[in-house]
Write a structure and sequence with these properties.
Protein name: PGG domain-containing protein
Distance between the termini: 68 Å
Number of helices: 17
Helix content: 55-70%
CATH superfamily of the largest domain: Ankyrin repeat-containing domain
CATH topology of the largest domain: Serine Threonine Protein Phosphatase 5, Tetratricopeptide repeat
Keywords: ANK repeat, Membrane, Transmembrane, Transmembrane helix
InterPro entries: Ankyrin_rpt, Ankyrin_rpt-contain_sf, PGG_dom
Pfam families: Ank_2 (PF12796), PGG (PF13962)
Structural class: mainly alpha
Shape: elongated
CATH architecture of the largest domain: Alpha Horseshoe
């Protein structure tokens, strides 16, 4: 018996060295070694919370592969491990739903029913993911759990494209699996719901919501580039209007110059912030400074004498107010 245990331990260490990712509990979870999982947890229960180089915890790995026994042992450490977020906020329940591991789904929902409400960074629930990955048995299990917990509002939760699970199921022709669990909608009723939701997706509100910036989904680099383009366009346009102002009475001219200067100096401020720590920083700052004073000189030179003092004061006050906008 001791010889057999030693051989198993040797094989386990070889696998650990070959994997080179995560701690021993990750490896034991990946290979479904329940006995090793128990021993490791007894000595180091904190390892259950650690993530590997890819951002996955032992619970994520065991759930994705379908090692129900390992999942059961990990849940004994802490039931909140069901909520642990990995890449793109995927939880162990999400991993099990994607792979269709129905026994793991039941095990986790028995221990932590509220984890069925967790969503990914794309706002997908476990049921969304099961439908998108054509995991029919998982769909039935999840729907039955939702119905049993009387949490039918989960059926109305939307992903980032505005799709509910009913809409996805109808589009992917998975009505049967939902109907078996839900027991509420007829096929015709489901068609009407899906049609109504599709019309909602085409509405202006959903169109605007789709293109809104979403932290975590949109790349910071691409966002910076877009802001730089917009700021440069505003700076160029307002500079041209500032050095070549339109005619008009004194009041209209003063208002025009105030708002045009506000737009120009805000755009320059944005560009300075967005190019912080760029190479050739000294050259960039000198360029901004030269453009700034060129604009002010041109504005003052083209301003009628009667309102010149007002414009000079305005041009001096605006730069002091601009940093306050960074708080909004």
């Amino acid at each position: 018996m001791k010889k057999e245990t030693a051989i198993k331990a040797f094989i386990f260490l070889v696998k650990l060295k070959a994997l080179r990712k995560g701690n021993p509990l990750h490896v034991a979870s990946a290979y479904g070694h329940v006995d090793f999982v128990k021993e490791i947890i007894n000595v180091r229960p904190d390892l259950a919370h650690e993530v590997n180089q890819d951002g996955f915890s032992p619970m994520h790995i065991a759930s994705s592969i379908g090692h129900t026994g390992v999942v059961r042992e990990l849940l004994k450490v802490e039931q909140k491990l069901c909520h642990q977020q990995g890449p793109e906020k995927n939880t162990p329940l999400h991993c099990a739903a994607i792979k269709g591991k129905v026994h793991v789904l039941s095990e986790m929902l028995s221990a932590c029913p509220e984890c069925i409400e967790d969503v990914t960074i794309q706002h997908d629930t476990a049921l969304h993911l099961a439908i998108k990955n054509n995991q029919f048995e998982a769909i039935t299990v999840l729907v039955n759990w939702i119905r049993g917990m009387k949490r039918e509002e989960i059926f109305n939760m939307k992903d980032e494209q505005g799709n509910t699970v009913l809409h996805l199921a109808t589009r992917k022709k998975q009505r049967k699996e939902l109907l078996l669990g839900h027991g509420t909608y007829s096929s015709g009723r489901l068609e009407l719901i899906a049609l109504h939701q599709q019309r909602q997706l085409d509405s202006r509100h959903d169109f605007v919501e789709y293109f809104k910036f979403k932290k975590g989904r949109d790349s910071p680099g691409e966002t910076r580039s877009a802001l730089l383009v917009v700021a440069a366009l505003v700076a160029t346009t307002s500079f041209q209007f500032g050095v070549n102002p339109p005619g008009g009475n004194a009041v209209a001219f003063a208002l025009f110059m105030f708002f045009n200067s506000l737009g120009f100096k805000l755009s320059i401020y944005m560009i300075i912030i967005l190019t912080t720590k760029f190479p050739l920083q000294l050259g960039l700052q000198l360029c901004f400074l030269a453009m700034y004073f060129t604009y002010d000189t041109a504005v003052i030179a083209t301003t009628p004498v009667g309102i010149r003092i007002f414009i000079i004061v305005t041009e001096a006050i605006i730069p002091a107010l601009i940093p306050l906008t960074a708080r909004w």
